[in-house]
Amino acid sequence: MLMISDALYLGRGLHKVAYIHPENENLVIKIPFDPKDAELRQELSYRKSRKFRNLDSQLLTKFYGPVETDKGQGYVFERIRNADGTACETLGDYLDAQEAAGWPDKEEVCALLQGFMKQVMDERILTNDTCLINFLLQRNEAGEIRIRIIDNVGSPVKIPLVYYWDHMTVGHIRRYLKRLQRDLQEKYGRDLVLVKS
């Protein structure tokens, strides 16, 4: 059993609390408030289906399985940080800062978001979440940015055929990307062009 001190606390969401792994600072342990949480079951089922289908991803955090801790059953994931070891900012914080500064890097922002949306489709990532705190901007040694998805993946349907039938997956992702674009444009302006029609 792993002992987790309060010094390892990273943050909390609506369903889980996250801690740095006590034996490996490159990992994070997420502990659900309710072990039977539907969102957790959804994510575990989705990740199992991706493993079964041998689908790899550069967007999703890597998942390493369950672990027993003194705070309850936890789940071990890759910890997303910048190449220099600093914490990543959320996509929401990044876009808020761009908006506050008058969009000095608007073309780069649009290119980043377009690339992200293309990669979501290419990697067949299923999510219903448009909450920008679940997307982190990870910078490499050259300062280049990529977006990573850290939470809320999968589908809430009881029989997730969408996990296994590609045409259903594509349809789900198209609807999701349209909703994400709409939400971003409602918040940041209609001229934020993300998906080419």
UniProtKB/TrEMBL annotation:
This is PhoP regulatory network protein YrbL. It comes from Selenomonas ruminantium. InterPro entries: PhoP_reg_network_YrbL. Pfam families: YrbL-PhoP_reg. It comes from the Bacteria.
